[in-house]
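Protein 1 of 2
SEQ + STRUCT:
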Amino acid sequence: MAQYDHLELVRLPEQLERRKHGGGAPPPDRDGPRHSAKLRDELDAAREEQRRRRKPEFVDPSLILRVQMTGALQEADWEQLGLTVLSSDADRTLVLFASNDEMGEFRARLDAYQRGAPAGQKNAPYNNFIGGIETIGSIEPRDRIGIRFREEGLVETADFQDGHVYLVDIEIWDLGERRLRERKLEEIVRYLEARAGEIFDRYVGPSITMLRARLTGELVRTLLTIEDVASVDLPPAPDLVTSEAMDMVLAEAPPLNAIDGDAPVIGIIDSGLNAHPFLEGIVAGSIAVPDNLGTADVWGHGTRVAGIAAFGDLRAQLATGELRRGSRICSAKVTNDAGGFDDRAGPVANAGSDHAAQT
């Protein structure tokens, strides 16, 4: 382990978005024939739009729909129709995947709803389900532009310039079965390689399917029109914030408590770990992923985070005249010595590390 005397401790706030989903109000009273015809027209328009955008290389007739609900999301009803719910938002928007773009069973429900209530019944069949659908449409290309690109001012497909080359992470919708996602990913890889795109890495996990590539602006614009693509974004960058160090003479520091061998272990996924007197005796181990990074914390952030894990608020402890450590530390170095992720070194496996470095 590298030996450095500096150990700066910074407390970072936790900022995690939480989604809220309610049951929703009953569907509004609708003119059944008119509402059914409207939804059928919107479905047809979405299907035809996606057929026009589909490249010959992508042969599966899948359909990705954005559906706005007014009442409950009715996810179980969509799944009964053979659709996969890809996402749901607090504004009652669903993104759905249909493996066949005919949507025959859904159209049958639209027909039954359009015929109205049978004799002796108050409501038309599927009233809660069909009546709760407000609109049906497609995911637009601009909707696939990731948040990091947006933060850089690239918010429209036209913002990606032909003469510019972009390093991007491409995420595929979680379409369910792993073999299907692998096939979709392979189609995209073949399409990009045939047009001189440079593939760096790919990952297919239990629910995440991603690809990293270097592409021209023209190819990025094409990717934004592919229905199976959930997002195209810049690769994550570690949020390794530095701040002013504490000026302290180690000989004047308060005494450290001893810590038992069975104390809890906290794993730090960051920029590595350096030996420091305040961490002496509590480091259970250090690794690097990949191994060639080495475990030394040249960038300096991982050692600071280890200090937070071990002490909490160091300044408050110094005021009490005693330094108490509450845990042992394990370190996994996943960033290079410049504080970034290596583009070809398992980008998706490391993709969550920028968040881990903050928490």
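Protein 2 of 2
SEQ + STRUCT:
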Amino acid sequence: MSDLTPTRDRPGLHVSKSSPNAPATGSAVCHCGASATATGDAQVRALVAGWDANHGPAHQREGER
């Protein structure tokens, strides 16, 4: 499997949780230049909420939806 970690060349959101008892990890890179990482279930949930509200889908133009 290829590396799914987002980069400036491949922006996106990646969330991982290796087992039910392990903390989630997440990383996000937006084409606008913003980037963030998070560790722990609550922080990763906040990262995803922020991505949805302010990046990724929020940056799509009307014709791209």
